[in-house]
Amino acid sequence: MNTLAGHLFWIWLASAVFMLLMWLIQLRTKNAAIVDIAWTFLVGAGGLAACYFASGDIARRQLTAVLIALWALRLDAHLIARFWGEPEEGRYQAMRKAWGPATNLRMLAFYQYQALSVPLFVWSVALAAANPAPLFQVTDGLALVIWLVGVSGVSLADWQLTRFKATAAQRGLKGTTCRDGLWRYSRHPNYFFEWVHWWTFLLLAWGGPWFWLAAGTPLVLLYFLLFVTGIPPTEAQGIVSRGDDYRDYQRTTSPFVPWFPRSSA
Asked: Which pLDDT score is estimated for 111?
């Protein structure tokens, strides 16, 4: 555990320095969305480092490394395609407006907060990599199923939303809300399936030293998605940009867990 804590400390320190550089870049570009790309990269790189330095079963470490690397590559590819050449995302514009003259300092604190969260996500990956049990226990099979469901669900939700936005732009439709595919059953299917994905590493850590602590990552993530940095600001921005259409969407559609829509009457 002491060795793990040491590795996580260095991952945090590297993340803090990297996020400082990203903050300096956004001072010039005036686009804070780079923090999302940087955070994903840092979690992926930190996860790979944790797998390299762990002392668990070698096959388990390799599988864990592949899974966290594929997760990071997919998400960063999506974020780069989404943000490249586009103006700053609405939620970051809202933050700048709310913070006023204190924007630069508060943005620095926000970037460093993101750096501080990196070890929390690497934590569960490191515990999975530290598990000495030979690979392909029953729980490992369940972990692969969970990973496939989570990553496939996020990918599908992202693709459906991107397709909807492109179609809406072509047709000149503004102020409309995506209700296609998974978005008909959840207002935030991308958040839901991202949360599902993080249970993968608890199952890969199952039976290893302190394995139960790997549940901390998805549990803390759930709290932040529901109450802090996930759904609340996204929904507030949805009301600003789509008004009554989004309010109707809120009345009829589950906020997180996919479920059948309700009548708007």
From this structure: 97
Name the average pLDDT for the chain: 94
Residue 51 contacts residue 122 (beta carbons within 8 Å): no
How far is residue 237's CA from residue 111's CA, in Å, rounded to a whole number? 20
187-212 confidence digits (pLDDT tens) = 999 999 999 999 999 999 999 989 99
Cα distance between residue 68 and residue 199, in whole Å:
12
pLDDT in tens, 128-171: 999 999 999 999 999 999 999 999 999 999 999 999 999 987 77
Handedness of CA 249, 255, 260, 265 (dihedral sign): negative
pTM, entire model? 0.94
Spatial separation of the C-alpha atoms in residues 178 and 156, rounded to whole Å: 13
- CA–CA gap between residue 232 and residue 179 (Å, rounded): 19
Which residue from 203, 194, 143, 187 is spatially nearest to 39, judged by alpha carbons?
194
